[in-house]
Amino acid sequence: MRRFLLLVLAALAAAAGAPAPAAATFPGQNGKIVFVTGGGVGDIAVMDADGSGRSGLTTGEISGEPVWSPDGTRIAFEMIGAEAWAIFVMGADGAGLAQVGQTAGGSPAMAPAWSPDGSQILYVKDHTCCSAGPTEIWIMNADGSGHVQLTTNGAPVDMFPDWSPDGTKIAFDSGPVSTGTPELEPGREIYAIKPDGTGLTRLTTNTASDFGASWSPDGRKIAFSSNRDGNFEIYVMDADGTDVRRLTTSPGSDVRPAWSPDGTQIAFETGRDGNSEIYVMNADGTDQTNVTRSPGYDGQPDWQALPLPARTIPLGWKEKLASAGKTAMVFKVTSLTVDGSSWSVKASVANRTTKAVKIRKRFGIGLFESEEQYEGYTVLRASAYAPKLPARLGPGKTWSGTFRGTGILLPGTLVRVIFATFVAPLLPGKTDFDWITDDWVRL
Fold first, then answer.
1. What is the value of pTM for the model shown?
2. CATH architecture of 309-442
3. What is the pLDDT of residues 41-59, one digit of tens each?
């Protein structure tokens, strides 16, 4: 049987509670690609993922680094303001253009990146052509208020921040600069830091230049650009910096990766055709396709996330735990509902013993990549119960209701239900156990 009776499993403990040349792609349905056309700093345009439906949003402006808001309704980008580079925001159709971020005294603000809830924007401050530093990463509210400095590590240039989809980490690249172009500098590395400025962690280590981190929609991987093998190519690594894999191999520079919201594809900028074009490839590097096919500059792509449709999946699972030859507990799962970034499970748990069962952990769901995965999976714990979940389930008692939480549930994810950690003498020699359903559903 694949049913798990896990005794303080390390994989659960590690995952509990979970969680610019490139920008975060938030989970959802694949929408349009926003990009820069007409020059490295030119006009902002959008197109469908296959390159059709191309439409300009700005005209005659000096702008760059466009990024979609998590709900796909707004675009933040950098543009020359009244005094210097500043952050602007506009609607998905280009309407409602407004400046939201120029730091006090006219210090430049560039390279925006949205927080997962859309309430804040990361940006790079004092990026004066990379000749004066240090250049640091800051956070502000989406309306341009409340500027707070994030990085203070003393590096000459911290650049291109990217917020993880679960909101717990921010990736960025950092390193020396002498040429005026930081991404060309040897020794440029990718780091991760918590939004409160603590927990700085180095993710890459080599003598080349690694830059432009882009989180996958499920937060498990980071795509980036590196010239560690000669010219710049697209690489992907696990979120902790391990399992680095090269995805592209071309004579031109491949940079600025951007994941599709469903996690199956990556858009990127490349010079392989003699000019800068936008290509789209599968997340494993296969099927690399030119989608812009234009003689001019097209680059700096970012992929729009459209909301996933709400749906309820009937399940009808029923599983029993036996102890001393008798049924000790009965677990039932009636349905799973997924609505955007929230989820809920309708379920029940019955205590068929003569002793009370203490519930040590919250209920939740586990996100798996395969039926055979037994560690390293993601656990999303419930944050609300209706009715309230008791701390102790008395003998002969049943809790029946709905528990719900938030988290990233991408199409194709395999989901099992977790009925907390129970403390009771139900199994010989064991007092604590997690019940994870043998049954599963693939979204």
1. 0.76
2. Sandwich (2.60)
3. 689 999 999 999 999 999 8
Buried b vs exposed e over 179-195: b needs ≥16 C-beta within 10 Å?
eeebbebeebbbbbbeb
Q: Say whether pLDDT at 147 is over 50.
A: yes
Token readout for 258 is 């951007």
Beta bridge partners of 90: 75
Dihedral, CA of residue 373, residue 380, residue 201 and residue 208, to nearest 10: 50
pLDDT, average across residues 150-161: 85
Query: What are the residue ranges spanned by the domains of the chain?
Result: 20-306, 309-442
Q: Which residues pair with 98 in a beta bridge?
A: 89
How many residues in total does the chain contain?
443
| Domain 20-306, CATH homologous superfamily name and number | TolB, C-terminal domain (2.120.10.30)
State the pLDDT at residue 186: 77
**pLDDT at residue 7, rounded to an integer:** 25
Task: Report the alpha-carbon distance of residue 63 to residue 24 in Å, rounded.
Answer: 19
User: Would you state the pLDDT for residue 222?
Assistant: 97
